[in-house]
Amino acid sequence: LENALSRKPQRDALIKVVKESPTTSDVYIWEGTLDPKSIKKYFPQARIFTSALPTNMWKFLDALMPGNLKTCMRYKAQLDETVDEHMLLFMMQRRCKDLLALEMKVVGKRKVAPWQASQLLTQGRKWGDSSQNRIQNLSKIYHKLYDIEVGTKTGTLSFSIQKALDISLCFYLQ
After folding, report:
1. pLDDT per position as a tens digit, 26-51
2. Cβ–Cβ contacts within 10 Å for residue 145, how many?
3. 11-to-17, 18, 52 alpha-carbon distances in Å
4. Res. 109 pLDDT band, cuts 50 70 90
5. 128: phi > 0 → left, psi -120 to 50 → alpha, else beta; which?
6. Residue 150 CB partners (closer than 8 Å, separation 6+)
């Protein structure tokens, strides 16, 4: 179940099912908004496993900018050993989308802290000397990442996701 505890009707229904169940069952909940302490409040017997992205994922994403190929490739090599390639692709797409949204002054559903918006704006400025160039350059890499995703899902990608990302980074970050 995804985010079942952060919505009261679903949380109440789940608590009712667990209490009325005559046997012990495993229930897996993906909860992105509540901390483990809050989950224990509703389910004291729960075993909680947390999964956080490695810190070098954020360093890698912050380093995504033209002229920073060597640093990006170093972080990516570390991530290739610890993070699923699909997650890496997703996080790169999300970062490029965030940079594009800020550059185009599009307000999305995803809220970012003021310090994060400032950091993203600084990173976005590295993608070109004018707003139009930045939008164009960020759009190109974002579309390339989208093409990699489509190729993966349709089976038409000539390389592994890791190799396709390596090639794309070499092309766009040189």
Report:
1. 767 777 677 778 778 877 777 777 77
2. 22
3. 10, 11, 23
4. low
5. left
6. 156
